[in-house]
Write a structure and sequence with these properties.
The chain is of the alpha/beta class and 406 residues long. It is 38% helix and 19% strand. It folds into three domains: 112 residues, no CATH class; 57 residues, no CATH class; 186 residues, Rossmann fold (3-Layer(aba) Sandwich), CATH 3.40.50. Helix 11 links the parallel strand 11 and strand 12.
């Protein structure tokens, strides 16, 4: 065998788009935990930019020791970083992510003032994730969350109803017009022998019954108040990983289902799946009532009867939207006005047949009492969990949803 040796040329040509995504996934999923103060200036909802992506790639390459010392020396003493080899090579990586369909670089960010020179222009370019990148992050999250659960066959959501479908329940019934002709041959032949073929009627045909599986519509509500990154613990990033894993699970295993996402803070808003990984917390209170109101509106727009709200939170309600549109806030204790309006939203959800399943990331007595009340009103479920195991609880509950036959 002949081996040909060539001169080593430093660079990052060996890195694929998927490997680059692996390197920057923490940046994409950042919740503001690493810098809980500076990020609120000037705008907590600032859209990530191409310059942010450049910094993330630079940091990842530095951590892996992949940058040649001569490039670092050149960058350290350069007047303009755009003229350095390091800058040009990282720009090639950004281009590679675009070419492989992981990111898009949009137009100017309206929240950012234009800056002089090429560096200011780079800061104006918005970073947008594609469906491919969301699927990549969702699959990574799902694998991590389900890693300890063992094998589980894909399925659907059982209901209390029967139908003449494919998956047999072991029960039978006389044929009716419109049923699938899934005949139980043994029972049908008995009737043929008893009555004679010439006297056979449609009702003498016996069909196999199957469990009727319905589609489930889900709204996942994420608390993005300030407490989700306080007290020395990042609670919001695990919550986002759960949401992405759940979205990937539904897209791949439950094609008839729908899932949408909302965040609640001082107010509430729907978040497209493509923007969900980069949502960050802000200096907000917890307007749970507004979040539930938003979720009910979203579910009304989704067809189907089976509906649910999955709410992930770490705090009691501390804000309320008044009829005037102003936000009333009280972080001290369970304010009776805020509590009453929040429970009113839970009651409306119950009347609409929407259970609320709550995953609590804290153990404050007031939060426990509030969630217990919500659960009783809507006949939902409540889980006391931690950021370390929340994904297992959420996804196990989704996969094993059972509806008893009364």
């Amino acid at each position: 065998m002949r081996v040909r040796y060539s001169k080593y040329k430093p660079g990052f040509d060996d890195l694929s788009g998927a490997e680059l995504m692996e390197m920057i996934q923490d940046f994409l999923m950042d919740s503001g935990f690493s810098d809980p103060y500076n990020r609120y200036q000037p705008d907590p909802s600032r859209t990530p930019t191409a310059e942010d992506l450049y910094d993330a790639l630079l940091q990842a390459l530095l951590e892996q020791g992949r940058i040649p010392e001569e490039w670092l020396r050149e960058a350290r003493f350069a007047n303009r970083k755009e003229e350095t080899r390091l800058y040009q090579e990282i720009q090639k990586l950004i281009q590679r992510l675009q070419e492989e369909g992981f990111i898009r670089l949009g137009g100017p960010d309206p929240t950012q003032p234009a800056g002089p020179g090429s560096q200011g222009e780079a800061q104006e370019v918005r970073l947008e994730l594609t469906q491919k990148s969301v699927d990549f992050l969702g699959l990574k999250s799902l694998r991590a969350l389900l890693g300890s659960l063992g094998k589980n066959a894909p399925g659907a959501h059982p209901t209390r109803h029967y139908a003449s479908g494919v998956e047999s329940s072991g029960e039978t019934k006389p044929y009716e017009f419109g049923d699938q002709p899934n005949l139980n041959l043994a029972e049908t032949l008995k009737r043929v022998v008893t009555k004679g073929l010439e006297n056979l009627e449609a009702s003498d045909l016996v069909i196999e019954l199957a469990e009727y599986a319905a589609a489930m519509n889900t709204v996942v509500l994420l608390d993005c108040s300030h407490s989700m990154i306080l007290y020395g613990e990042d609670r919001f990033t695990p919550a986002k990983r759960v949401a992405l894993g759940l979205a990937h699970l539904i897209r791949t295993q439950y094609p008839g289902d729908q899932v949408r996402f909302g965040i609640f803070h001082d107010s509430a808003e729907e978040v497209p799946l493509g923007r969900l990984p980069m949502v960050q917390v802000g200096p907000y209170h917890t307007n749970t009532a507004e979040g539930l109101r938003l979720a009910r509106k979203m579910l009304k727009k989704m067809s189907g009867e089976m509906k649910q709200i999955i709410m992930i939170t770490d705090g009691k309600p501390s804000a309320l939207t008044l009829p005037s549109g102003q936000i009333y806030k009280n972080a001290w204790g369970l304010d009776p006005v805020i509590l009453a309006e929040t429970l009113k939203e839970a009651t409306l959800a119950r009347k609409e047949g929407i259970p609320i399943h709550t995953f609590m990331l804290a153990r404050e007595p007031e939060l426990l009492a509030f969630v217990k009340k919500i659960t009783q009103i809507t006949k939902g479920k409540a889980y006391l969990t931690t950021p370390a195991n929340i994904g297992r609880y959420v996804l196990m509950d989704f996969l094993n949803r059972k509806v008893s036959r009364n």
